[in-house]
Amino acid sequence: MGKQRALRRQLEFTKRIEEIQRQNQQAFVLAYPVIFSGRYMGDLVSIFEEKNLNLKGMRLMNVNEKFVEKHFKNVGGEPQGANTYGTWLEYLTCHPVIAMILEGYDAVRRVQEITSERDSLFWSDKGPTAYSSNTVVRAQKDIEMWFQDEDWLRDAEASTHLVYLHPEGKTYGPAVDAYNILKSDVSFFSHHPNIHGYFMLEYMSVVVIKPEAFRKCCVGDILSAVEGHCAGIRGLKLVRKADCPGSSVWSDSCTSSSTTDGDECTLAMVVLLLSHEFELTYDEPDTKHIDFDSGVYRLGSKYIYQSEKGDNMWSDVVNFFPHGFTLWVDPTWQQVFGKMFEASLVGLVPVPDPESEVTC
Question: Can you give the residue ranges of the Nucleoside diphosphate kinase-like domain (predicted)?
Fold first, then answer.
């Protein structure tokens, strides 16, 4: 009898531990390029918000062949396998992807169910538009791979494929090759005397979706409004206050009882030519009016922040995108990839061997 009671207590204890683990379980999602190119990032976030899944990580990334091969080795499948866009290797290396961490009760199972729905954003007539981890262990390994924090700068500086552009003016890598490729574009060559000028444009701004939007579960709606009213998003990442405590975006933030101060999150973006139809008001900071039918978007400063031009813009870039921006250059094919996605540096580790042939 004593052994049976001890066994029952052990089983009950194990169940309690498993239940606790389900409460804050983390799931991983990789949104394929069609989500970014179709401007569906906001819709993607809204789906998870509606299911009470909290966004704990998000990165717009470009990745290289070795990275994609490692991903397929971990999850199964064949990187050279055909899809509607060519091979998976070609598709995932030539266009931006979005890596996400979602947290909530039984998150892995629930996210798998959501991304498996055929009549949803996660499927198109050309096949799946996203991958999600199918077990808790797999999710943790995927998160470790896609959200690694390696010191890549030394590799970046020596790379023959990666151009690293720092907001303060430093440039590393094959910038001459990239410039020679880009100058074939008449609009580029006539307006920008060097490659740094092309990517540090005056009509860019840093736009930050603030913690209040996370608390009110309207991050997806605001992101959709930004996507639909700008010339392009050149960088995107989720930033915690603990990683960027000095920014003014936290000044009017009220920490909720369920969130510790350092855990508060924002979604920072580098936005090109945000439309004047997207109105930010400081006079009414609590205002949140998003009407997709009428095209009226009016948001108070409690929900969103937009940098001013000049020094303030560069200060925000350094705060939220401290490693600058990158391009991936393939002179053999006369193409420039990566454009301005800061997190692409993470995906490009390890940097391709200079002796190896890069194909895209």
Answer: 24-154
Q: How far apart are CA 208 and CA 237, in angstroms?
A: 10
Q: Closest by alpha carbon to 265, among 91, 59, 40?
A: 59
Weakest mean pLDDT among 7-11, 216-220, 335-339 = 335-339
Residue whose tokens read 């948001």: 299
User: Amino acid identity, residue 331?
Assistant: P
Q: What residues are paired with 148 via a beta bridge?
A: none
Nearest-CA neighbor of 343 among 236, 199, 201?
236
Q: Are 188 and 182 in contact (CB under 8 A)?
A: yes
Higher pLDDT, 243 or 23: 243
Question: What is the pTM for the complete model shown?
Answer: 0.84
Here the tokens at position 124 are 């198109």
CA-wise closest residue to 163 among 186, 148, 147, 179 = 179
pLDDT digits (tens, 9 = 90+) for 83-96: 777 888 888 887 78
> What pLDDT does residue 177 have?
75
User: Which helix (DSSP H) or strand (DSSP E) does residue 140 occupy?
Assistant: helix 136-146
The CA distance from 156 to 348, in Å, is 9
d(CA 208, CA 268) in angstroms, rounded, equals 4
- Sign, CA dihedral 193-195-196-198, equals positive
> In the chain, what's the furthest Cα-to-Cα distance?
87
